Amino acid sequence: MDKKKIIMIGLAGLLSFALSFVGAFLFLGDKVVETVHTQDAKSVAAEGGLAVHSDNAGSQSELVIPQVGTANGADEKQTKELVYDLRQKMDEYNEKLKSIDVENKRLEVARGQLEQDIEKLETLRADLAGSINSLKSERDRLLKTRVEISDLEKKNLVTIAASYDKMDGVSAGKILANMTQAQNGSPTDAVKILYYMGDRNKAKVLASLAETEPSMAAYFSQKLKTLTEVQ
């Protein structure tokens, strides 16, 4: 063979091989691409499914977690409110205890003061009772020593006293003193007569008795205070 035929045969073989390769590539390339796309689609689908599952899981987590968070938040808020209310109640209770303590102290002071006042009143009552008893005794004594003069007796005594007013003080004093001594010092008619004598003559009689018989003058002065007119 000459060189031209050999070259032409070689070129034809190369061309045939090239055409075969291109045909095979063109024929099998779509399947490879489809296979690749199918695998990619499956991968994408798998990844998408995983993503969807993850998204669903995430969504569920997002739905559940906020709910749990919300529940926990509500419980925490309720707990805080309960604690706040409890503290307020405790503060109110403590304030009431303080008020009660202050009131008890005030009552104790008032009770002590009241007991002191009661003791003073008891002492005063005892003193008053003693004074009342003394006054009653004095009243009884005065009642016993009081000399009552009735209206009828008064008329007679006034007439007799007018006669003594005409005497001098010394003579009238002696007569009245003798009358008193004769009746042993009891309330006598002499005191009653002296009671109804005029003030000037009465003074003269007492003055004369004071010089001669001071005790008798004192006796008359005391008895004159016991005379009482009975209406």
In words, what does this structure look like?
Residues 28-70 have low confidence and may be disordered. This protein has a domain at 147-229: Annexin V, domain 1 (Orthogonal Bundle). With 231 residues, the chain is mainly α. The protein has helices spanning 3-145, 151-165, 169-182, 189-196, 199-212, 214-224, and strands at residues 147-149, 227-229. It is built from 6 helices and 2 strands; from the N terminus they run H-E-H-H-H-H-H-E.
- If strands are numbered along the chain, what order do they take across the biggest sheet? 1-2
Mean pLDDT: 75
Which regions contain 5 or more consecutive residues with pLDDT less than 50?
28-70
Query: Quaternary state, please?
Result: single chain
- Given this structure, which CATH class of the domain at 147-229 is correct? Mainly Alpha
- Helix percent band: over 70%
How would you briefly describe this protein structure?
This protein has 231 residues and is mainly α. The protein has helices at 3-145, 151-165, 169-182, 189-196, 199-212, 214-224, and strands spanning 147-149, 227-229.
